[in-house]
Automatic annotation (TrEMBL):
Protein's UniProt name: Peptidase M48
PANTHER family: CAAX PRENYL PROTEASE 1 (PTHR10120)
TM spans (from-to): 6-27, 56-76, 88-110, 141-158, 164-183, 276-297, 312-333
Binding-site list for Zn(2+): 266, 270, 341
Peptidase M48 domain mapped to chain residues: 197-395
Residues at the catalytic site: 267, 345 (proton donor)
Length: 408
């Protein structure tokens, strides 16, 4: 059984490496072409950023493969020998927490390089070491408190229910829904500064747009995202009574009112088309498959890892191998997502205009330095959104002539 999972991980590793090399080679060739979508200087800069980021991903992938071999070879066995706790739920908390913390510490150099070297170089990151440490401490506290409670809960279910994977799925699915409901509140209280829009004219226009499509929210807020990053973004956060519209201050600063409304119209398209519920359904199905697989493993796998078939081991094995299953399911999920993005673009352009949405996407691409071209295989595995050039084509905009089709 262990051999099957190891082979799957090796395939996962090989595909990751191959697609990264294909992407780097593709961008190196594409950067020599005439600039499209981006301004010429930003086209070159975006290609450099994309290549450097992919090289960092390559190094991280190799590093993760080495860590995987160490963990299954002797790491888990060694960690188990240090933790001599009889109480099953307490052992699960300590073992899994330590496993996650050790992995985070070992991966910290890559995070630090990405944040303070790569993203600083391309003028994305504004975060200071003090703010990084502050964010890390807060995140650590949330993980140790609430993460440990979730681990204890799933350990209890594993220990006390024969068909634990069914009840475990229900429990974790409910936790994820709760996290989505509380996410904007937690961000507001612990990480970001949420404020009502100072531009009352913009706020009135957004409220009118929300009323037009029947989207009920608890408010429209601007968040001080620029203290960490210069990239532009917006999102609808929360569920039910916590649902709110959140605009990055960078987005409010760079986009006109009409362009902002076009971006929000796109997001409202997801709401109107039921994409949020569809995504929850897809996530639930994927999780159910995961729990069905990991809930029916035999003792052979755990013997191969020198672990007992107990809650702490089952949770850890889930954490180690679930990313592999996710990776091979992602092409199908991404295909569905890309289809939904086209529909959301259509809805957003009808709420505003195609010109406003195209102008907004052009500004987002330039400000975020998003290289507009990618290798088809890379798109197949990693793109949840269609390439910009394809989105523009659907909107009737020719990126070469910078004109809209007469038929649109």
């Amino acid at each position: 059984m262990l051999e099957i999972f190891v082979i799957a991980f090796c395939i996962y590793f090989a595909v990751n490496i191959y697609t990264s090399f294909m992407q780097i080679g593709f961008i190196q060739d594409a950067r020599k072409l005439e600039a499209i979508i981006l301004e010429p200087s930003k086209y070159l800069e975006a290609s450099n950023y994309a290549i450097e980021k992919e090289k960092l991903n390559l190094a991280s992938t190799f590093y993760d493969f080495v860590l995987f071999i160490i963990w299954i070879g002797f790491g888990l066995k060694t960690l188990d020998s240090f933790i001599q706790i009889d109480e099953y739920w307490l052992k699960a908390i300590v073992f899994v927490d330590l496993f996650i913390i050790i992995n985070w510490l070992l991966g910290l150099p890559f995070e630090l390089y990405s944040t303070f070297k790569l993203n600083k170089k391309y003028e994305f990151s504004n975060i200071t070491p003090a703010l990084f440490i502050k964010d890390t401490i807060k995140t650590g506290i949330l993980f140790l408190v609430f993460g440990s409670l979730v681990i204890a809960g799933i350990a209890f279910i594993i220990q006390n229910f024969p068909a634990w994977w069914i009840f475990g799925f229900i429990f974790i699915f409910a936790v994820i829904i709760l996290i989505n409901m509380l996410y904007p509140v937690i961000r507001d209280k612990m990480f970001d500064k949420f404020e009502n829009l100072k531009d009352k004219e913009l706020e009135e226009k957004i409220e009118k747009l929300l009323d037009e499509v029947g989207f009920k929210s608890s408010g429209v807020y601007s968040v001080d995202a620029s203290k960490r990053d210069n990239r532009l973004n917006a999102y609808f956060g929360g569920l039910g009574s916590t649902k709110r519209v959140v605009l990055f201050d960078t987005l409010v600063e760079k986009l006109t009112h009409n362009e902002l409304l076009a971006v929000l119209g796109h997001e409202l398209g997801h709401f109107k088309n039921g994409d949020i519920l569809k995504n929850i359904g897809i996530m639930g199905f994927v999780m159910f498959v995961f729990f069905a697989i990991f809930g029916n493993l035999n003792d052979e796998l755990f013997l191969g890892l020198s672990l007992n078939n107990e809650p702490y081991a089952i949770i850890t094995v889930f954490l180690i191998f679930s990313p592999i299953l996710s990776f091979f399911l992602m092409p199908l999920i991404s295909l569905i997502s890309r289809h939904n993005e086209y529909k959301a673009d259509e809805f957003g352009s009808n709420l505003a205009t195609k010109e406003d949405l195209v102008n907004a996407l052009l500004k987002l691409a330039n400000e975020n330095k998003s290289f507009p071209l990618s290798h088809p295989l890379y798109i197949f595995f990693y793109y949840s959104h269609p390439p910009l050039i394809e989105r523009f084509k659907e909107l009737g905009y020719d990126v070469h002539t910078k004109k809209f089709s007469d038929k649109i």
